Amino acid sequence: MRRLLFVFFTALLAALFVVAMWQDTNREWTGYQRRFFKTLASDERRNVPGGIRQVIVKDLNRVDRCTTCHVAIDKPQLALAEEPFKAHPGKYLEWHPVEKFGCTVCHGGQGLATEVKAAHGDVPHWEEPLLRGSLVQASCRQCHGDLKAIETYAPTLVQGRQLFKAKGCYGCHAIKDFGQTVSQDLTEIGSKSYLLMEADFEMMEEPHHRIHWLMTKLRNPRTLNPGVRPEALPPGEEEVYPSAMPHFGLSPDDVDALTVYLLSLTASDLPASYVTHEPPEPTPVYASSVERGKAVFEKYGCAACHGLGGVGGRRNWNAGLGSEVPSLMYVKAYYGNDVERLKDLIRHGRQPVPRADATRPVPGLYMPTWKDRISEDDLDALVAYLLSLSDKLPQPPAAPAPASASATPSDQSTTPAASSP
Amino acid sequence: MADEKFSVKQYVKKTKLWKSIFRHDFMDTPRTRLQRVFGNVFLHLHPVRTSKDAIRVTYTWGLGGLSFFLFLILTVTGILLMFYYRPASILAYQDIKDLSFAVTLGQLLRNMHRWSAHLMVVVVILHMVRVFLTGAYKPPREYNWVVGVLLLVMTLFLSYTGYLLPWDQLALWAVTVGAQMAANSPLLGNEGPFRLPFITPFNDARFGLIGGTVINDATLIRFYVLHCIAVPFIFCVFVCVHLWRVRKDSFSKQTGEKVDVWPHLVSREFLGTLLTMVILFVWSMVMNAPLEGQANLNVTPNPSKAPWYFLGLQELLVYFDPWIAGVVLPTLIIIGLMAIPYVDINPKGVGYWPKMKWKRLGWLPVWVPEERPFAVTVFMLGVIMWFVLIFIGTYCRGPNWEWYMPGEPWSYRRLTKLTLKNIPNLWGSLILVSYFLFGSPIPKKVKEWLSTKMGSKAPALVSAALHIGLGMVMAVALFVPLLTAADADFPMRSRYTTLFEALGRSINSPVVSWMYHLVQQFGPAVGYAIIIPMVGLIGLCLGGVGIVFAKFKDRLYEALGPIKYAMVIALLLMMTGVLGKIVLRLLFGVKYLISLPVFNFNI
Description:
By secondary structure, chain A is mainly alpha-helical. Helices cover 36% and strands 2% of the residues of chain A. Mean pLDDT of chain A is 86; it is low at 403-421. Chain B folds into three domains: 8-36, no CATH class; 44-401, Cytochrome Bc1 Complex, Chain C, CATH 1.20.810.10; 425-602, no CATH class. In chain B, helix 14 (322-343) packs across helix 20 (510-588). Classes of the chains: A mainly alpha, B mainly alpha.
């Protein structure tokens, strides 16, 4: 009996070892390689080594095993139509030789892995999932400081950067040394750990990673931070407002473009030989101080809170003036006689914002200090622009005079169009 | 090829080469059975013959041998892993990834190392429990029990140092929890109570453990050397001593006829190791060792948990300051375990499992062993407490260390607001002192003196008065401050002026809030008329518990003498004190009994 058990367990152990060995030699990647090699003639096979293949890029501190399955990525003459045996599209590999760049530096994913899911980064505890579709453009900016030069190849990235400026994101967020500090610094948002993102993790659908977080946030900033109503809190606890970030109503394309741009903002320590720098922008020339003021208004991101063209309408919980950021259309009526007071308000900001209900917490948005950011000349131009905004308001009906009766209807029809861009 | 006159087998056996290696015949004769054991360097660890009952599987369950075998597996897999591992923070994590994805059988190797380590911790603890329950630590084997406790400590330390090596988030933060406990050592820790004047973050106990003020490359290389060389070396020395003492002190079970170790014991050992190996193999093929993201000091996972075998201590951090939960209690546990054979003078119960029996303790039916009811009950209470705390820490604690049922989804939004208050120091000291006085016996001489002076019933009366008195003092010393003391946090951190109101309105002190609502609803007269008898009743109950054990305490004192008795009763009271503190915290919302923030000293 005992002898039988001896034999049985020893045989079982041997069998287990064989099974383990078999599993080890038949891992996922071997199937792909076998399928690929079957399609090749024997003389073609000689040029393509089997086994785990890796690209070691010392400069970038990367080891990428992607070519283990993507065997023909740099051999268009051998490529098949199906994944993963396609050759890399376009001339990108000519410009970025695989041995100098590897794969993951542009495409993300887990270069060391040899299993599909793990390699594409679709597993827990890997922060860099594969950058699919247009997201891959985010990687261009690591080296290409001059985005205009690569606009044809990275249109979404360039569009994202334009959107970032146009929506006035700089009004609250800083990137490197430009932008306000009302909210998070975005200088390294593209490589920030997901766990450090400000989020209610329950509000987030799967998958839990940075890209999905950014997209959800941009689609509607309040999805991830819906706040906590006082009813849901223990008595005596202060309520939490939803995210103060305005809801910009971005289209899906805009969301993609902004996500690409934000992902491109990474902490990178690439060798200098890889990097090109952005050429300085030419100094613009303005026809009038109002036009210059408009440029200042857009450059510093005032539009994010005060609305495009200063029309207002942005929610600011519990702020005076109807829980909104004030519109700028009536600046002239308030400050027309005392421009210095308006300038001081811009210089020093307004913190904290007056509350509608003094028992509730302070509003999330506030007017930051601009005195060290906007130069005095720019400030003058900005004030001129702000005072000109009320011109676009519908004029009060003029005194009944027979001469102007024909002009009034056309005035009213043009004003909304003028204020909308 | 078998030829009558010439066979290859016979020829080979006659060669000089064969004879120089194999010194004896393989026929199953009594002679070769002996030769196999004492002619073999590995097997001669065994005696040649041993009693039949001692090698019965259900006596030892082979736990000691399996511990040793798991140590061997760990050594072998560990050596193989060392070929692929470089202990530097920029390389370590990558090497583990390589093991998982590129090295032939690398993942299996890592899994096996990890799972055998977990299994070894379990098996070593079970081995200790077995040795305790079968009384195998009793004379002449006291010293070997102490060596065994040291081996347990080293097993835990080996696991702990190995935990850091993958250099992932799990490793970093588990080790952080342990390192912070070191920083809270009394006297020697920078954050501990009564810090010595020359102690800074740069020379305290944590600095010594992790080789710096934060966990970094210095820690990694330190833990690597400890894990791969230093601790295994010492471990081997102690294993040698341990096994040698088993031989010298003889095995704890000597009944039954003598049988040959070869094949009776050796075959059982071989089967046991085979079975373990099969289990480990299947386990390692089915389940991968965890590996989280690369270690990042800027990203703290919530919750951060220590390795499971230390989670009981981490769970105690809820109820105690780190210097107690992380330093004093583990030290006391180790010292207490080592002291067992020296304070347990009961000669019974050696060589067989305890026979359990239903008995009556007063009116309470209890399931206790016939021969060593006190020792077995106390020891098993400790072991069960340890594992219950581990279970709670592992499965019932979520973000912010909030309580969750196993399987309940975690919520990062949930934040229970706890109102915890300190009892004023004088009252708290009174509770503590009377609690420890509970352990005091009434020696025979005092009893005799009392009965000669005041009649034969006096000793019993004095004993009853003492215990009821102490119980009353404890109840009063707890409830009086809860009902009347001012809230020290008022007005900075508390809106209420008294502890009674602050705790009465909180959600985490059911007893106090019950009393508070009583007083609010029925008015002070009726309320206190209910509360005061209730306090008296609690005092009586505590005193009653004392009276139930009074006779036992006196007998124990007479048997052990003052020093051993003091050790036993102090350790026992500290163990139940842990439970008491948990009760105080959960039912009364009491945080500290004694709090001296100046010295960082809180109990």
